[in-house]
Write a structure and sequence with these properties.
heterodimer; A: 187 residues; mainly alpha; 2 domains; 69% helix; elongated; B: 441 residues; alpha/beta; Rossmann fold; GMP Synthetase, Chain A, domain 3; ten-stranded mixed beta sheet; four-stranded mixed beta sheet; 11 helices; 22 strands; 24% strand; binds zinc ion
């Protein structure tokens, strides 16, 4: 059976997160997935190194959130089935954390789009496929959801607006001078 | 009903209105207006819901770009961990934040996208029945949209326009503003604003012989009292509650179809009341999307506009459902519209009168809040917040006049000024109350 986003989201909704997983426990939960797939999980030291060189402000809460999702849904079981030996576990994890970099745990918990993105990025990094969906459709959906790209777009739009700010201010002032009564139309 | 207007002729001052005289510039927009009407027609006869939804969803591309270009929306989505690209289908909307009227009022200048042609935008002040006024930025097509929608409504009502049709805005408001302009966008017609407060109003209407008349219930009532006036092909009004008796008089006795539509200044036209099934408002899809299965009206505007509106809540009550109506309409229909504040006043004759029939009196006063309570057969208490003494005086006079028209012989309106700051406006205001019981009549 392939991964199903609606099913995972349903399971997640039914398993409220009482308190964040402690970091050591969260790392253990993640490693356990690879162990269950008969793969040697990354060593504890690999996580320490990752945090030192690639870690960022949100990384620990992301690790904790991932552990919660793995432990409370069928994501763990499906991942075990999907994993093959074409890539190392650490390479897969690095890809995952890189792609979800701007996602906070709160977004994953409460925001439908970021939750879907989080799940899809995991499934892709683990080499899984989605139920009733072609690989091309899965790829396109992830492109639509991509929050890293969206943040870049926001920044670009913001910069463009800053450049236009004066003109904008002036245009709105002109429009306000043409202020008109709402009732009826003036043309 | 008295055939003599009870409205005092010297109320208030003329409302400010900038009238565009360069009406020739409407011409380039004619193909657009025709396309708007065509698309409304196409969707109103499309029986297949999936196909209809696909047509509506095709408009989301434009909305996504507009959300990106709106400083307010971009910031708001980013703060919520979202982005415009998340909006792919109508079902996605429910995950997005709702835009309340008060938020629109506070951020009116940050919500618009950057206007492209400076001369084409105006700022319009919207004063709803309740709540503080809102500044609304409109582009040229926002201003012209009703002429596009009118083409569609004329077809729905089976009304035919003569060549060079004359349209009248019949106005019962104080000030008596009048003007005449060309209307190239509607079959090379002309637009006349006529005030019922002027002594020569009937004479002007005889001369103009309008094909289309827009008015409020008070203006329509004035018309019914003058059966000798020419018969237009269609009359339109935009009243939350169009009294049934008034509609019947016009439709049955004068043979003029009356089309009641629901519009707000912020959103433009949203729905029109079915000519066969009163109380059923058919939604103007695909220009607007009203979210189904909600108790409140939640609007996403899908027609391109300088003011992108995502999940806007105008503060009206109603529930939208997919509908196959007896009138032939296929689409989404709003029912239970405005029902939350339902109230009936008791006229001295014992007749129950829909309290909302006087709502239009309040519509044109920038009141922070008000409540009108009937506490005796001829007695009313008007509680006002944020109104000046002259405003309260003018309002009371107009209210008394409206109540007389509705069957009260000598209505008394007592005014009580409330502290605007202390007035705890509920989210769903109940502006009308009746404490008089039918017993004893
Ligand atoms: Zn109908």
């Amino acid at each position: 059976m392939a991964f199903s986003i609606p099913r995972l989201r349903e399971q997640l909704a039914a398993a409220p997160l009482a308190s964040p997983y402690p970091h050591e426990l969260a790392v253990a939960v993640i490693c356990d997935v690879f162990r269950a797939a008969n793969q040697r999980p990354p060593r504890r030291e690999a996580f320490v190194q990752f945090e030192r060189h690639r870690g960022h402000a949100l990384w620990r809460e992301q690790v904790s959130m991932l552990a919660h999702v793995l432990a409370s849904t069928s994501l763990r079981e499906e991942t075990v089935k999907a994993l093959d030996t074409t890539r190392t576990p650490m390479a897969r994890l690095e890809q995952f954390f890189q792609e979800i970099e701007p996602l906070t745990a709160e977004m994953v918990r409460a925001n439908a789009f970021r939750q879907e993105e989080f799940l899809r990025v995991w499934i892709r990094a683990m080499g899984g496929a989605l139920e009733n969906e072609t690989p091309a459709a899965s790829k396109q959906r992830l492109e639509q959801l991509d929050y890293r790209k969206a943040m870049a777009d926001f920044r670009a739009a913001e910069a463009a607006r800053k450049k236009e700010a004066d003109r904008r201010e002036q245009l709105l002032q002109e429009a306000a001078r043409r202020e008109a009564e709402a009732r009826g139309w003036r043309e | 009903m008295s055939p003599v207007s009870v409205l005092a002729p010297d109320l208030g001052v003329a409302p400010r209105a900038r009238i565009r005289r360069d009406t020739a510039t409407q011409r380039p927009h004619i193909p657009w207006a025709e396309a708007v009407a065509r698309e409304l027609s196409a969707l109103a006869s499309l029986a297949d819901e999936a196909q209809a939804r696909a047509r509506v969803e095709a408009r989301l591309d434009g909305l996504r770009l507009a959300l990106h270009a709106s400083p307010f929306h971009a910031r708001r989505l980013r703060d919520a961990g979202m982005h415009p690209g998340d909006l792919r289908g109508l079902d996605d909307l429910r995950h997005f934040p709702v835009l309340e009227r008060a938020t629109l009022a506070a951020h009116w200048d940050a919500i618009p996208t950057l206007p492209t042609a400076s001369s084409e935008c105006v700022v319009v002040r919207s004063s709803g029945t309740t709540g503080a006024p809102v500044n609304v930025v409109r582009d040229r097509r926002d201003c012209l949209l009703m002429w596009a929608v009118l083409r569609f409504l004329l077809a729905r009502a089976g009304a035919r326009l003569p060549r060079r049709p004359r349209v009248v805005l019949l106005d019962a408001l104080p000030g008596g503003l009048e003007y005449s302009v060309r209307l190239p966008i509607l079959e090379d017609g002309a637009l006349h604003r006529v005030s019922v407060l002027r002594a020569d109003a009937a004479e002007r209407l005889h001369r103009v012989r309008p094909a289309v008349v827009f008015s409020d219930p008070e203006g329509l009532r004035w018309w019914t009292a003058r059966p000798e006036l020419p018969r237009p092909a269609l009359m339109l009004t935009s009243a939350q509650h169009l009294p049934t008796a008034l509609r019947d008089t016009l439709t049955r006795d004068l043979g003029v179809p009356v089309l009641n539509y629901y519009a707000t200044t912020e959103t433009g036209p949203l729905a029109w009341e079915c000519l066969r099934t009163p109380g059923h408002f058919h939604v103007f899809a695909p220009d607007v999307w009203l979210e189904p299965d909600s108790d409140d009206v939640v609007v996403t505007r899908l027609r391109p506009s300088v003011l992108p509106l995502l999940r806007y809540r105008p503060g009206d009550r109603g529930t939208v459902r997919r509908d196959a109506c007896a009138c032939g309409f296929r689409g989404w229909t709003l029912t239970g519209f405005g029902g939350r504040g339902a109230c009936r006043f008791l006229a001295p004759t014992g007749r129950a009168v829909d309290a909302w029939a006087v709502a239009w009196v309040f519509k044109h006063h920038a009141l922070r809040a008000f409540r009108l309570t009937q506490d005796a057969p001829e007695g009313f208490l008007l509680e006002l917040a944020g109104a000046s003494e002259p405003e309260a005086h003018a309002l009371t006079e107009r209210l008394v006049a409206a109540l007389r028209n509705l069957g009260w012989a000598s209505p008394r309106v007592a005014v009580r000024h409330e502290d605007a700051a202390a007035w705890s406006a509920p989210a769903k205001p109940q502006p009308f109350r009746c404490l008089v019981t039918p017993q004893g009549h």
